[in-house]
Amino acid sequence: MAYETVIGLEVHVQLNTHSKAFCADDTSFGGEPNTQVSVVSLGHPGTLPKANGQQIALATRLGLALGCKINQRTTFDRKNYFYADLPKGYQITQDQRPICVGGDLDIKMGDAWKSIRIHHIHMEEDAGKSIHTLAPKHSFIDLNRAGTPLLEIVTEPDLRSGEEVDAFMTAMRQLVRYLEVSDGNMEQGSLRCDVNISVRPHGQTSYNDRCEVKNVNSMKFARQAIDYEVKRQIKIMENGGKVKQQTLNFDPNTGVTSPLREKEDAHDYRYFPEPDLPPVVLSDAYLNNTNQALPQLPKAAYNELTQKYQLSDYDASILVEDRETLLYFQGLIQHTSNYKAAANLIINRLLPWKQENKSTLSTFPVPSTSLAALIALVEEGKVNSTAAYQNILNALITKPDQAPLALAQEMNLIQSADSDFLSDLAKEVIAQFPDKVKEYQKGKKGLIGFFMGELMKKSKGKADPKASTEILQQLLK
Amino acid sequence: MPKFTSLEQVQQAIRQGESSLEAVVTHYLEQIQASRDLNIYIEVYAEEALAKARQLDQKFKQDTNSVGRLFGAILSHKDVICWQGHGVTAGSKILEGFESLFSATAIERVLAEDAIIIGRTNCDEFAMGSTNETSFYGPVRNAIDPSKVPGGSSGGSAVSVQADTCLIALGSDTGGSVRQPAAFCGVMGFKPTYGRISRHGLLAYGSSFDQIGVLAHSVSDLALCLEIMAGGDDFDATASQQAVPAYSQLLNYQGKAKIAYFDTAINHPKLDPEIRQSSLDLIEKLRADGHQVEAVPFDYLDYIIPAYYVLTTAEASSNLSRYDGIRFGYRSPNAKTLEETYKKSRAEGFGTEVKRRIMLGSFVLSSGYYDAYYTKAQKVRRLIYEQTKEIFQKHDFLLMPAAPSTAWNLGESLADPVAMYLLDIFTVQANMVGIPGIAIPVGTHSNGLPIGLQLLAGHWKEAELLAFAELVLQTS
């Protein structure tokens, strides 16, 4: 029997606010354990939370970018449970009126776009970290992360495979980075997800009971966990069993999911309205301003690149991958209308330069105007593309103030279409290789490329290829 | 009779050279010593208070204008309010030995005006109780008759003023915990509008009900303390940013008031007949003075207590989760695992009443019961809110007994918690709605115990309420 995999995600995004969700503690990553804490994040008696305006602003920003409806009166709730890394014995979250409802994110699968619906987005605070691996009989608690602001994005069960989950998480990471909502760094846990998986026979419209897989902090693990879980569930069904709704832990070392202890799964969180935080009221003006301040989003940029500028899917996908590259491209084409050349230049030269130097495009030394001039030199036939994008560009990187044309002249790379100069060179080549000439004349016309190459060598790259070919063909007749 | 019944008297005595601040503190320390049997204080800051008094005497001598507005005010504070570097235990074993790392905003503000804190007063454990008998540190006794309770939960605060061990006491009022003990002890007790005084540094019981209150012998002292403690605070999102009037300068009530009362309260079957008579006498007196007093209907008196206990215990069950034996406070030495640490530390650290309320609160929030209890109680709160607002659209004040009886015998309430809960029947409305209320002493019962009545006003009407209370006291 053929089965269909049904997946919904709960994505946690750690926001790049300066301070924690409900107090002024620093949120930077990597501090010594328990140094980024205060009486509030430690849950000391008599302390109260205070909502972080930046968290609300970033949640609104992401919500608007995803086309969500923003609840203009949004409230906080408490989720009660005991754990050693949860100082207050409850987490402040949103249950009844989350800040964003609905919306969707489009992912690209091959040539087609697929829309994944968002159920809602809510604001919450993170717990601290429990470390169980440092000593055999003790656990250690680091509360630096306790109270760090998070957004939880809950999707509808619209995903159908590990590939789609991968595409969704990649698109989400791209979006939160575009919006400067989060660094989206999965290794550091800034972006992570719980995966809800169920399997059903093809054609069935209702959903079967799902299993929630926790502790998935990389795309590789997500795919592994999904693969394992799908096989496990199908096996149960094929054996006539029924998959039980439960919470599973994924072990990255073994690639296996296993149920959490019954007790851990039997929480009654006793949600109720957080009495210490008044409702947050967002005005129309606030939403309008936030909306207007949104940057161009990745999908719109992709469409612009492929439609308006006629770039290939490959080029456009690379250029929109991060916002800096997109902005660089958009800046460069202010100075040239050869979009394809501009795209190639960025993809083939600037991005590798950025990677090698572990740098950013904004620090690339050659100004966009010079890059545009370089493109123009090739277009006008004054230098060939190899000379332009290798020799001259390399020289420009060390001497960014120089004009490309002057450099080309200085480096003696201006192509020549002068027929006397070219026919002299052509005659030299013909004289040098009499055997090849005979072969050519006997019909091995492909040798024209060989003659061309030799001519180009003699010209030190300056020969205009088109004119040279014509002259060679003429002389070889 | 107390040596001083207002800050003005203290300041005058010092200004005229009859006394020094050190002498005032010494007087109160002697009183504390003399009243140790009443179990008022959990900790007395004798040396610290004396040192501060000497320092302020010096400051005053150098420049009489250099001292703050609370110069001369010797304060006690309930053991639920934090003072940096000092213990705070909420009358509970679970916080025995715990010292706060920060000061409550209210404490910071009174200290900035040169008040002296003389000690930390006993109270019901986590402010849960109406008789001050649930404290881990033992019950507080009423100074008028030590066989009687002082009321609660701010019982220690009330007796600290009653027994002349300080001039002013800071308490907290979640369902009447300032006003009811004030009535039992024959002093004044005032609870402002919810959000008027920051709760930062107040150990939470029922967060949407809790408010710091003041107990004193004079309305002017209540007004001045309120003026100093009130106002917005970056550490409490529920503290109002509304401007703070100069309450102490606004104590002259002008004109005639419109006063409402509930027939259902005055004729409540549980109300002591002499307290009823006191209420009726005051009503007559006010009418004779030209004020308009009328009975208004109120449909929810009997729903107040059940709804209150559902909502406050729900909030408390969550607020008290942080006392888990992990980071601070009592940790059971008998626990071997994380789960045991929670269970044993809490079972051994909390007293019976606190555990009862945590269990009740956890129950009403449980899935399957939430709507029947929590949601329903919220609806009741909303209805009470609406009808109370309506009353204050047509009336300036609401007159009510402060408690259905005078102070109980020690031990009487522990057998019947529900009867104890009903002690709050007349005070809880103010907390359900968030309005200010004041309990004032109006006389003595034939049993020799004080009788207190209560005046309530609309939201943010503290100035009017305090001025009117002053007028009532002066004319009765």
Structure, described:
The complex is a heterodimer of chains A (477) and B (476). Chain A has 477 residues and is of the alpha+beta class. Chain A has two domains: 3-289, no CATH class; 419-476, Arc Repressor Mutant, subunit A. Chain A is built from 16 helices and 17 strands. In chain A, the strands form four sheets. In chain A, strands 1, 2, 6, 7, 8, 11, 12, 13, 14 and 15 form a ten-stranded mixed sheet that branches. A three-stranded antiparallel sheet of chain A has the order 5-4-16, with no helix packed on it. Chain A has a two-stranded antiparallel sheet with strand order 3-17. In chain A, helix 7 crosses helix 9, helix 13 (419-432) crosses helix 15 (448-458) and helix 15 (448-458) crosses helix 16 (465-476). Chain B has 476 residues and is α/β, with parallel strands linked by helices. Chain B has a single domain (1-476), classed as Amidase signature (AS) domain (Amidase signature (AS) enzymes, Alpha-Beta Complex), CATH 3.90.1300.10. Chain B has helices at 7-15, 21-34, 46-62, 105-112, 155-162, 179-185, 219-229, 263-266, 273-288, 301-319, 338-349, 352-365, 370-394, 417-421, 428-433, 462-475, and strands at residues 41-44, 74-78, 116-121, 168-173, 188-191, 211-216, 258-261, 292-295, 397-401, 437-444, 450-457. An eleven-stranded mixed sheet of chain B has the order 1-3-2-4-6-5-10-11-9-7-8, sandwiched between helices. In chain B, strand 10 and strand 11 (450-457) form a beta hairpin. In chain B, helix 7 (219-229) runs antiparallel to helix 16 (462-475) and helix 10 (301-319) crosses helix 13. The longest helix of chain B is centred in the last third of the chain and has 25 residues, at 370-394. Chain B is globular. The two termini of chain B are 19 Å apart. The mean pLDDT of chain B is 97. The interface between A and B is large, with 29 and 44 residues.
